[in-house]
Write a structure and sequence with these properties.
The protein is α/β, with parallel strands linked by helices and 446 residues long. The chain has 14 helices and 21 strands. The structure holds ligand LLP.
């Protein structure tokens, strides 16, 4: 039954309409228009606390991966819970600071940090840079020395394990561009210890995203353990960051064998926070170091939906299309990774209504602009509202203005109260910062 399935996201039907923490999504759609992202405060806070409590026995810090959802309303919410942040750009650091987040709880990842970004982060006083190459180490040393400061660092180890996830989001194999090869690590730490302007703080790994089994995490942590022990003895490192990547459930119907995203349906016993903690705790406890987690998707993925209105139905040669007012520019995951998002109507179908098969597509001029193909849904008609579930992570943050479509509004719900945490862009927003060169105007006049 739908109600219990959706309830896992803290979105549930009340009186036949989908609600988020008691707020009626149909009303939100009518008030602020569609498409719009709607997030549940309770779900985000609950996920943060569940992860933190699972590791209550060991000193730890959760550094939420800002790239998953960087709205300052959400960053402020997590910051208030005590969360740190994993950032990948000056822009993300700016957001964290604007949201009142603590710089000294920020880790800075990424293979292509610029001089300006490094200087900004050093001045802000971040917890550490996750260093992805030897040349970055030299760059950090030089900039910190010039500023008369020291750059705190961890090296990102590439543990060369198979995360068993989509190839675009797997990062811990030796063929990926991320991290420093395992067998180079000790030499690079030795080099780091001798460089001016470098303070060794910890060690980091990250093997990929949307990992739905404990196996790859356990394998990577065990592989790292002897290295971590040596680093602790030699350089007195303070922490071991195990990265992010905790997978979430995108398709609650998986148990019944319906198709889902990226093989996760193959796994009957999917990863939970309890099984993740159970798999990692023995090794982490033994290491006796503070542990950093960098979850993004887990924290916000199931907390958000994208609501959109059916514009029209169209019978194609062999398919029935429901064209909606959200497009791949608003949520690119299905187009980019063929990812699965559950789709539910905001108003429950009448009893006995026969489901039909639809391709749910957007208005963007690309064949890849679809959210679902051959999806069975209750009968739809123009004007109907639907929700694309589990869109809280890598939804808005990957949105663009392609086809000159304004980016959607974002709404945060708390206990029935709604706040627009990002206004829908206006048409004027679209051309802000653009200029017509004088010479174009002149040539037009002649
Ligand atoms: N730490 C590092 C170094 C990362 O590269 C990432 C994600 C994370 C943490 C957070 O991973 P998470 O816990 O969210 O899995 N756009 C893709 C996901 C890209 C993930 C990139 N790195 C998607 O929509 O599935």
């Amino acid at each position: 039954n739908r109600a219990t399935k959706v309830a896992m996201h803290s979105f549930e039907y009340q009186h036949g309409r989908l609600h988020c923490e008691g707020a009626d999504l149909v009303r939100i759609a009518d008030q602020i228009g569609t498409p719009a992202y709607v997030y549940s405060t309770g779900t985000i806070v609950d996920h943060y606390r569940r992860l933190s409590e699972a590791f209550i026995d060991i000193p730890h810090l959760i550094c939420y991966a800002v790239k998953a959802n960087s709205n300052i309303g959400i960053l402020a919410l997590l910051g208030a819970e005590g969360s740190g942040f994993d950032i990948v750009s000056a822009g993300e650091l700016h957001r964290v600071l604007k949201a009142g987040g603590r710089a000294d709880r920020c880790t800075f990842a990424g293979v292509g940090k610029t001089d300006e970004e490094i200087a900004y982060a050093i001045e802000a006083g971040i917890l550490a840079f996750n260093v992805e190459s030897e040349s970055e180490l030299l760059q950090l040393s030089e900039i910190a020395t010039r500023l008369g400061k020291s750059a705190p660092i961890s090296l990102r180890v590439n543990p060369d394990v198979d995360a068993d996830t989509h190839k675009y989001i797997s990062t811990g194999k030796s063929e990926n561009k991320f991290g420093i090869a395992y067998d180079r690590i000790l030499a690079v730490y030795e080099q780091a210890s001798k460089l001016p302007g470098i303070t060794i703080r910890g060690v980091q790994m990250h093997i990929g995203s949307q990992i739905t089994r404990t196996g790859p995490f356990a394998e990577a942590v065990e592989k790292m353990a002897p290295l971590v022990e040596q680093l602790k003895a030699r350089y007195q490192i303070e922490y071991f960051s195990v990265g992010g990547g905790i997978g979430i459930v995108y398709d609650p119907a998986l148990e019944s064998g319906s198709p889902g995203w990226w093989q996760q349906e193959k796994e009957a016993n999917r990863l939970t926070i309890a099984s993740y903690a159970e798999a990692l705790l023995p090794t982490l406890r033994r290491l006796g170091l503070k542990v950093i987690f960098e979850p993004g998707r887990y924290m916000v993925g199931n907390s958000g939906v994208l609501i959109t209105r059916v514009l029209r139905l169209k019978q194609g040669g062999s398919k029935q299309f429901a064209i909606v007012d959200a497009g791949m520019n608003d949520l690119i995951r299905p187009a980019l990774y063929e990812s699965y998002h559950e789709i539910v109507p905001l108003e429950q179908a009448k009893a006995g209504a026969l489901p039909q098969k639809y391709d749910i597509v957007g208005p963007v001029c690309e064949s890849g602009d679809f959210f679902a193909q051959d999806r069975e849904l209750p009968p739809l008609k123009p004007g109907d509202l639907i929700a694309l579930m589990s869109a809280g992570a890598y939804g808005f943050t990957m949105a663009s203005n392609y086809n000159s479509r304004p980016t959607p509004a974002e709404v945060l719900v708390h206990d029935g109260e709604t706040t627009v945490i990002r206004a829908r862009q206006t048409l004027d927003d679209l051309t802000r910062g653009e200029t017509i060169p004088d010479w174009v105007m002149t040539s037009n006049r002649s």
